[in-house]
Amino acid sequence: MNNFANNKGFKLSFFVLLAALIVAGCKEKDIWPKESYEMLNKRSIKLVTYSNSSLSQFSFEESANRHVAVYTNQFMDLSQCNDCGSPFIAFEVNPFLSEFNYTSREELESVKAIKGQTSSFFGPYASPLRSGSISGKKTTDYSWIITIDLPADSTKPNESRKIKGVFTLK
Asked: Which domain of life does the UniProt lineage start with (predicted)?
């Protein structure tokens, strides 16, 4: 008597189907980061530079066709310096793009990418980001998943940083 479960063709088909399901289940998916940061609505970055300093003053001004993504490290221990503020990274985002990827110095300059401190003894300051990459994907009309990848600099050679978060319009 030929039992259906003992059929070699059935067993082979079962294992092929099982393997296909496992491979399909392992496919990379978009995972939403847990961290959330703010996106300033209708703003642009104004950077005021001085010839005798590498640091600049900055402000976020009204703009009809830009947003500003702002990452602020709020988890820094400020017990040693109560007027140091928080480190931040900011850059302009074109709200009409569904995706973007900035990797060259020219691209980072075009979106006015800056890093600095929210406050200090001298007030808030920033300097242009000249290397690294910033990429993002619009998920809704009000939010983007953005990855900021900064290389280590010469003063802190072991401190490269990768930040991934959901930036939401405020």
From this structure: Bacteria
| Contact between residue 154 and residue 24 where contact means Cβ atoms under 8 Å apart | no
Nearest CA among 151, 145, 119 for reference residue 37: 145
43-49 vs 36-40, strand pairing mode: unpaired
User: Residue 105 is encoded by which pair of tokens?
Assistant: 């110095």
DSSP H or E run through 9: helix 8-25
Q: pLDDT tens digits, residue range 19-39?
A: 555 555 544 455 667 778 999
Domains of the chain, by residue range, sit at 36-169
> What value does the mean pLDDT take over residues 101-118?
94
Q: Please, are residues 42 and 67 in contact by the beta-carbon 8 Å criterion?
A: yes
Signed CA dihedral, 51, 53, 55, 61: sign only = negative
HEC per residue, 94-140: CCCCCEEEECCHHHHHHCCCEEEECCCCCCCEEEECCCCEEEEEECC
Q: Is 155 helix (H, G, I), strand (E, B) or coil?
A: coil
Average pLDDT, the chain: 80
CB 89 within 8 A of CB 129: yes
The residues pairing with 51 across neighbouring beta strands, listed in sequence order, are none
